[in-house]
Amino acid sequence: MKKWTLAIAGVLAFSTLAVARPASEKEERERLENAGKVMKEILDVPDNIPQEILDKARCIVVLPSVVKAAFVVGGSYGRGVIVCRRGKEFSGPWGAPAMMALEGGSVGFRSVDKRRTS
Fold it and tell me: In the chain, N or C terminus with fewer CB closer than 10 Å?
């Protein structure tokens, strides 16, 4: 019983760290710039995302950095930008970017994939 109490307390403690706070204009600008740099780097590599996939995409989410940690109690946190197409059935031009946050927690044992690839 103490293990579950400790695990639940850990999840609650982590969730209080993820309370949304208003971002300053400077932070939002930096987030947009970082997301733009990441997208440019992805599109500049030789084996980039095929144009057909980008043409069919309804939305694009860019999370420049995501932090994950886990040991019985786990969590993930990241901030980024989402851009979606406008119009009927998301078929129009790209809309304005919106700020996005990835926040989550979990409790339980983790399995490790020990398969080897060659």
Answer: C
Q: How many domains does the chain have?
A: 1
pTM as predicted: 0.60
Is residue 118 in a domain?
Answer: no
As averages over each run of 10 residues, the pLDDT of the chain (118 residues) reads 39 42 78 88 81 86 85 85 89 88 81 56
Token pair for residue 77? 């946190």
Question: Is position 22 within any domain?
Answer: yes
- List Cβ neighbours of 46 (8 Å cut-off, separation of 6 or more): none
The domain of 94 spans 2-107
